[in-house]
Amino acid sequence: MRLFVLGSAAGGGYPQWNCLCRVCRLYWDGDPRVAARTQSSIAASADGVHWLLLNASPDLREQIMRSPPISPAAGADEAQRRHSPLGAVLVTNGDVDHVAGLLTLREKQNFELYGTTGVLDVIASNPVFSVLDPACVERRPVEIGKPFEPVPGLEVEAFSVPGKVPLYLEKGDVDVGEEGEMTVGVRLTAHGRTAFYVPGCAAVTESLRERVRNADVLLFDGTVFEDDEMPQAGVGAKTGRRMGHVPISGEGGSLDAFEGLGIGMRAYIHINNTNPILIDGSAERQAVEAAGWRVSHDGMEIAP
Ligand code: MLT
Ligand code: MN
Ligand code: ZN
User: Fold this and answer.
1) Contact at 8 Å (CB) between 252 and 246?
2) Which domains does the chain have, with CATH numbers?
3) pLDDT tens digits, 30-47
């Protein structure tokens, strides 16, 4: 199995276009300890030829341009004028950073679009996505807990994790932490190897811990290091948990929650621009690395 991190940052990317938080300011000032990161997406393949795109970020075009395995030239023959190794796309929620890139995928290319019924309904209710011609793009509902094979040899299973509806659909009291169809994690299995991809998760439950026990790879929600990081940074009022993202540190944080589960490789992904793990050598970067985690970056390849 091959996994390819296309975008390691959360919504907005790093740096965010209008942000002067402590971490973004390092980038604008040219500090060598930080590197730009695009928005949340990975690609996965069992054969290196047919690829599943997991989440379609607003930065997708740029991500394809610098990723030879998913460029139109990969696997195409001389006569072909249109081609893509991306045979299928799976979205794990309806957030802007995970669906806006679907608009980049117009242009009469055949592929299958997978998501839960809840998320596909959100997409269907927005007419702009009609640019994906139904004659080319088949929308295929994914059942929670029912494995499927979107590209040859790659078994995929979606499972519910605590989450919420997309930000743009929030109204009144929001149920953050509901385990339903609006936020899923994904198991990827090929050649006897298993990887989990969970870019958004509001809490680490006991059932999630058991699910990922002894996995070869875990790519997990690294949005914020501290729950109140955004208010502390002076860029917003919301906590990580309120945004549907369990913090890395602190009580109930992911750093402690995934300890001792025999996971081969753990890496944070979907990292917010306020998160100090983005800074090489920061105390927070050192803390996660000392606990056995890596901080994913754009272009990172994983071959479990
Ligand atoms: C999130 O992960 O919380 C969302 O991507 C936020 C957003 O819509 O910008
Ligand atoms: Mn996001
Ligand atoms: Zn920032």
Assistant:
1) yes
2) 2-75+82-297 (3.60.15.10)
3) 999 999 999 999 999 999
